[in-house]
Amino acid sequence: MYETVRPVIEQITPFDDIESEHIKDVLAWIDSGTELCRISKPDNPPKHLVSYFVLFDEANQSVMLIDHVKSGLWLPSGGHVEPQEHPRTTVVREADEELQIVAGFDTPFKDNPLFITVTRTVGHGQHTDVSLWYVIAGNRDEQLEYDRREMNGYQWMKLDDVLATDIRKLDPCMHRFVGKMQKELGRQAVR
Questions:
Q1: How crowded is residue 38: how many other Cβ atoms within 10 Å of its Cβ?
Q2: How far is CA 160 from CA 19, 138, 168, in A?
Q3: What is the mean pLDDT of residues 122-132?
Q4: How far apart are CA 69 and CA 176, in angstroms?
Q5: How far apart are CA 124 and CA 28, in angstroms?
Q6: How far apart are CA 80 and CA 92, in angstroms?
Q7: Average pLDDT, the chain
Q8: Quick check: pTM over 0.90?
Q9: Before 45, cis peptide (omega within 30)?
Q10: Cα separations (Å) of 173 from 106, 148, 162, 170?
Q11: What would the pLDDT profile of 58-105 be if each residue is shown by its tens digit?
Q12: For residues 159 and 178, is the Cβ–Cβ distance under 8 A?
């Protein structure tokens, strides 16, 4: 597992000093040999690997966020990486389980995570999520079926609207993620 996850982390180009520190922290965590995946809910071990996936409608410059039942925040979809599972495989599995869709990595960001965060969760069983943020293709005009145990609903938001939303309603790293998306999209448009 360690040999699989380390290269995934190493290929991430940090957006800012925070992400740079998160990458260093995660690489040291991997090198420590500790368990990377959740063994039992909600917090064993107290730090574990998660794969987020953000549906991106490139034509509309919009992302889909879910109204997460447990946290009360608007977040990307995703889930915990299972032992011996590649984090990209987690995205494929969770996209099917949570939204009944096939994860398509045919976005400008390809099939590697764009972003990484190390975040303390809120609510019962607080723990630290090491989250890899993948971007998959979506279409805001398609109606999605979703897992009502995980989410109260979903909404599509233009990238600028995400940045205009009070961060207390979102994942605490959402503004930085969208900033990184916009930077990468701008860089690719110049090519």
A1: 22
A2: 21, 18, 16
A3: 89
A4: 23
A5: 27
A6: 12
A7: 95
A8: yes
A9: yes
A10: 24, 24, 11, 8
A11: 999 999 999 999 888 999 999 999 999 999 999 999 999 999 999 999
A12: yes
